[in-house]
Design a protein that fits this description.
It is a single chain. This protein has one domain. It is mainly α and 332 residues long. The mean pLDDT is 85.
Length: 332
């Protein structure tokens, strides 16, 4: 089994992650169907896949340039333009229909609403930006001594978790519990770069670990609302094993089935290339469409169609937007 398949199918894995997020954010009610209920409950594992695959990407990005300013510039150019424009659209809608609040406008536009109030409004972007902020410093330690770099990271992580318990502020768990998978992604990037291979028995072990990791997630789904010490956000810790093993297995399947140039992988790769834009707007638009349809008295039986149309339309819109970007680039 070749670990570098993670890098080869990185875009497709991002596409898979986006589909999981779409299911998690969907308005579908599927509580009575156990299998689908679990997929929806654990659908935000797509975020963990984003973190893991982003970690792989950060390793390769740092190989191209170790200059911190250049590293930050690339991250800013990739994220902030889409963030500012699409976030502004959401803010304008809320101002028109819910009234304008200058304080919340500033907090939401800057991403500080998550850090200061615990609001989950677009929490992912402020969180990933902080990880990008510390990544170059971690990479400097990583280059010198990998073990010491991860030892320092582990100590800092444990301290942060402890502080959250001490001050009884658990809203940071949504990012803190995902820090390990991001930095594990960086190490996975190194394994990809080194073209690391493992023998066949590790494929079996990886598959076993994947299925075993699902057990605590199912327990959390079943009991988090009735057993006090089983917290909903503990599932993010369980996602660590599921993501690492699952992405390796999925990339392995893509390769074994010779799907590199197939329609499925190409579609997933395209979706993976525009995850930021889809992420920023699809939930917002879906929620508003569902609301206005319910106001108009439209039967909720159309929810499935609405969710599917929402994703298809966004992929089409982003496709056209990327096409226009290429046209303007040629004109320049």
């Amino acid at each position: 089994m070749e670990i570098n398949l993670l890098s080869k199918y990185r875009a497709a894995l991002m596409g898979v992650a986006m589909l999981f997020i779409a299911v998690f954010h969907s308005t579908l009610t599927i509580d009575n169907i156990i299998g689908l209920r679990f997929i929806k409950f654990a659908g935000d594992i797509g975020v963990d896949i984003f973190f893991f695959v982003s970690g792989i990407g950060m390793f390769y990005s740092f190989l191209k340039t170790t200059d911190i300013k250049s590293f930050y510039r690339k991250r800013i150019i990739r994220i902030l333009p889409a963030w500012v424009v699409l976030n502004l659209v959401v803010q304008l809608y809320d101002a028109i229909f819910n009234g304008f609040n200058p304080g919340w406008f500033v907090l939401n536009m800057t991403g500080l609403s998550f850090w200061l109030t615990g609001s989950l409004y677009y929490w992912y972007v402020p969180a990933i930006l902080v990880l990008y902020l510390v990544t170059p410093f971690f990479m400097k330690m990583f280059e010198k001594n990998i073990k010491k770099a991860y030892a320092f990271l582990a100590i800092a992580w444990i301290v942060c978790i402890g502080l959250c318990f001490v001050v009884h502020n658990a809203h940071f768990f949504i990012i803190l519990f995902r820090v390990p998978v991001y930095f594990t992604g960086i190490y996975a990037g190194k394994l990809c770069y080194d073209k690391t291979k493992v023998d066949g028995k590790w494929t079996v072990i990886t598959a076993l670990l994947f299925f075993i990791s699902l057990v605590p997630e199912i327990i959390i789904m079943k009991y988090n609302e009735t057993v006090s010490f089983i917290r909903y956000d503990f599932k993010y810790l369980c996602f660590f094993v599921t993501v690492v093993t699952g992405t390796i297995l999925l990339a392995h399947i893509f390769a074994k089935c010779n799907m590199e140039k197939g329609v499925v992988v190409r579609c997933l790769s395209y979706i993976g290339g525009c995850t930021l834009e889809i992420y920023l707007l699809h939930e917002f638009v879906l929620a508003r469409c569902t609301y206005w349809l319910s106001v108009a008295g439209v039967n909720t039986a159309s929810a499935l169609i609405l969710n599917v149309i929402n994703i298809v339309v966004f992929v089409a819109v982003v496709f056209m937007a990327h096409g226009l970007e290429k046209v303007f680039a040629k004109v320049k």
